[in-house]
Amino acid sequence: MLGCMFQAFSQQQKTYFDSQIGKHLKAYKANSEVAMQNGDKEQAKFLFDSLFENHLKFSHVRDMSLNKVKGGTLNTSSIDKPFLLITKSSWEIIKDEEINEINRMSKMYKGQIEIIVLFWDSKEKAKQHSKDYNSNVTITYIDERDNNANHTIKTFKHSFGAPACFFISEDKQLLKIDKKFTISNSYNRSEVAFSAMHEKIKWMLFSDEPTNSGIITTLQ
Question: Which end of the chain is less congested by CB atoms within 10 angstroms, N or C?
């Protein structure tokens, strides 16, 4: 009986990403919009960091069922390792340098982490983009016209849009968010672009060791 009580207590202590977004996103967006209108980028960054650190970090992500371009579905509850969920829109111009670097990182950390790209569009358009990624990257899509996407999945789009990248631990806890996961247009040399995307991914994976490229761990 004590074991059941402890388990119930532990479950009650969990906070969930979608619930936290529902509570705090509206105020964050309103304040962030004011900061951007005033040209105060530092305040905008402070607001996002506060939202993440105080309300979203370590929140749990409920199970999601994602449509795979190659057929079938991917249930995130079945993933037994950390994963990156990269959201994209088909109308976004995705640079070759970005795709190449994601492919390279997927090979480098194969078996340690899953990389999932989620397109917010039809299967046909997602399939066109999927040809550029290697087999280590799982390409999924959500066509909102079907209205079949559950609330949890929609939260990822309606919170920070696309492109964005979410780093989720093997325990399905949110560890990092990069809400502008793309290569800037200012990068016009491939080696600079490679370095930029590499650093973005390493920042997601190795928060305390930004130059590390070894074994991924999400243990606190």
Answer: N
Strand positions, DSSP E, 169-213: 174-178
Query: How far, in Å, CA of 61 to CA of 7, rounded?
Result: 19
Q: What percent of the chain has pLDDT over 70?
A: 76
* Beta strand extents in 125-163 (DSSP E only): 137-141
Q: For residue 83, what are its two tokens?
A: 């994963």
47-66, pLDDT tens digit by residue?
A: 999 999 999 999 999 999 99
pLDDT tens digits for 138-174?
999 998 777 566 677 888 888 988 889 999 999 999 9
Here the tokens at position 195 are 């370095």
User: Could you give the CA distance from residue 53 to residue 24 in angstroms, rounded to a whole number?
Assistant: 12
Q: Name the nearest CA neighbour of 72 among 141, 119, 129.
A: 141
pLDDT in tens, 92-137: 888 887 888 889 889 988 998 999 999 998 999 999 999 999 999 9
39-53: burial string, b at 16+ Cβ within 10 Å, e else:
eeeeebeebbeebbe
CB 155 within 8 A of CB 19: no
Nearest-angstrom CA–CA distance, 201 and 60: 21
- Tokens 């899953």 correspond to what residue? 114
